[in-house]
Design brief:
Strand content: 5-15%
CATH topology: Arc Repressor Mutant, subunit A
Structural class: mainly alpha
Oligomer: single chain
CATH class: Mainly Alpha
Mean pLDDT: 92
Largest sheet: 3 strands, antiparallel
Strand order of the largest sheet: 1-3-2
Order of helices and strands: HHEHHEEHH
Number of domains: 1
Distance between the termini: 27 Å
Length: 143
Amino acid sequence: MTNPEFPTIALSRLMYSSSRLLIQKIQLTLNDFGLTYPQFLVLAILWEEDGLKVHELGKKLNLDSGTLTPLLKKLESQNLLKRKRGEADERTVTIHLTYPGKSLQSKTLTAVALLENQLETELGKEVQKLLPTMETLLEKLTK
């Protein structure tokens, strides 16, 4: 659909298709580590800021706890993170990386860096040009 009367719909279709294809390429790299793309996103955030509460992580990923909880349970079953209920308020759950979760960072990010170089060759500088626009769009959509 490229109807000029619906540019937002056309944009959403292009973003959807592009996103799916890009995630497929990333997933091929993540398969070597037994991770799905959403699991990798969770770990990548925790590698930057360990000890987040579930709702804080959900906010960073724009995911609700119903979507995030199964992801966290799976990562916990893989011994990559631990969830801990708050002592003062048991409704709050804090997420901490385990040693295996922390040690996965360097191996995974090395592989992702190689993929990034390959994608830059394939896509040129388009990604760098699009990043600010996409960040602004996401910010506006989350308001």
